[in-house]
């Protein structure tokens, strides 16, 4: 056994994050760590990586108890963590990021950049990573940045790698590349702890599994002993269908119409309509232009051509402020950077788009904010210690609910959900889908972007498919994944 965590306990400001977290991982195995958002997975791994100190329990490294207070102590021991959100320096090269903080020096103390480039190039070539040592990290795709994080861990001789949701923002092909690397590391005797919410990934790479619920380890053992249904039951403590199937509604009046919308060189000739009471899926491969379309419709990016109609009237949306005034709402793909003010409390995040409702004489009333947040937190089942808890301390699923609560408080009617289930667990996904269904039943229209084709087939009333900035077709929810992928890979205008 390489690492053992026994009965780990951790509290934050009176809130128990871990009550009894236990896990053991051996060299040369991939150990899956599963659980709902807020179950304590990231907290347990941050303790293993020296980013947090435990309040109780034992941590053994190769049979000897250790006490870590800083990440560098874990790094010296041989533990590295590949985070879901990149912690790289975007203005530096791949090589410079690999050696950041451990730069090789020449005799006079100058950084030996040639040695850095040569060492980085050898490592990249040895592992067949699609990278170049002199590439600027800020220009890499999310998958490329993940590979740089992995390279850095390998370069410094880590014997245990912790992956926190490494494929949450990657395409299928990019995810397969990460799986290949994980398998290669396992074959070299490296231990891997792998956190994921994508249940379809488990059988591809996992050997053993540990499941947390409410800060406690509820199961640990070989993956092959559990069915997917049993895994879900352990995660949530109740029966939850892995498949959410929405009952369709009768379509209401047209709320939004887009005609011949274009934004060079990303979007061209986009046309569709959204009606009250319907959820329209938007599918496409990475780079198809789905996020760019949502940003353009919400006024984040200006369009070059086309017409937008809201309630049958042509409108000009030159800014998010104008979009909000018209009743539009954007639940963005990256909730941590563009969806939430992470340091502000939950109540402030919920009321952010409708401050006049909680203000008097131009001054915000905290008591009114807390009251509004309390009502919506109860309605959406947001798990927070109080309305004053910073949004950044919530789990991913609860953060997503806070974003939705903001637009409910604003009385929005047209919603753009961009990857709404990214990085959240199966139970939270079902809750988000239920919220979307409630919105539709109340008369809202929803455009839902998702890279998970099964989700679109389960939730959407119809599915629009994009490729290279154009719409290539529309499908009913009875279509199969193959039909969606065929349209996503079609050359524009081809029907074969």
The largest β sheet comes out as:
6 strands, mixed
Low-confidence stretches: 491-496
What is the CATH C level class of the largest domain, in words?
Alpha Beta
Domain count: 2
Instruction: Please give the CATH architecture of the largest domain.
Output: 3-Layer(aba) Sandwich
Overall morphology: globular
Mean pLDDT: 87
Q: Going across the major beta sheet, what is the strand order?
A: 6-7-8-3-9-10
Distance between the termini: 55 Å
How many strand elements? 22
Secondary structure category = alpha/beta
Total count of helical runs of at least 4 residues? 17
CATH topology of the largest domain: Rossmann fold
Percent in strands = 25-35%
Percent helix: 25-40%
Verbal overview:
With 496 residues, the protein is an alpha/beta fold. It folds into 2 domains: 234 residues, 3-Layer(aba) Sandwich (Rossmann fold), CATH 3.40.50.300; 235 residues, Rossmann fold (3-Layer(aba) Sandwich). It has 17 helices and 22 strands. The strands form 5 sheets. A 6-stranded mixed sheet has the order 6-7-8-3-9-10, with helices on both faces. A hairpin with a 2-residue loop joins strand 21 and strand 22. Helix 13 crosses helix 14. The termini are far apart. The C terminus is likely disordered.
